[in-house]
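hey can u check if this looks right to u? its 172 residues, i copy pasted from the old doc so theres a chance i mangled smth
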Amino acid sequence: MKDIAVRAGVSVETVYGQGSKASLLMAAVDRVRAGDADSARVDDRTDMRTVLQAESPRDALKNLRTLITASLPDALPILSAFHRAADSDAEIATAYETYEATRWGDLEPIAQALRPQLRPDVSVEQAADVIWSLLDPTAAEGLLRRRGWTADQWATWVTDTLDRLLLVEAFE
């Protein structure tokens, strides 16, 4: 909390006045998840609507790629810190579990948008699970920070993989 106060240029008391470490971290995560301080639901936001209202499932994946490329550089550091903090703090671990359930709920509409071209052996729920799994911040962190990938490379890999795993006629 002291480091946060120093970086924010405020007193430690001011930081503690915002709530516990977990609530402060959740506020930061909510901000990067949504992209700004706007309180609109993720699926009501313009950038997500471009994914959900795309002409076709493949267009939805192209728009998702654009969204990931734009948001990942700002979101990854806080999401990675959140994940690591959950390993050592019970309150943060509980908040992290809540975040993961919310993240799945944020991603499930993408699976719904892919429904018209989902492979017959893949349900919308299974598609949402695959999307949730592939968009896990720890996977991104490994490839970006440890293997030197760019956000664009990662976003392309994720959306190409989703296409191949979930959609019919993936190799047009």
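The two ends are 52 Å apart (CA to CA).
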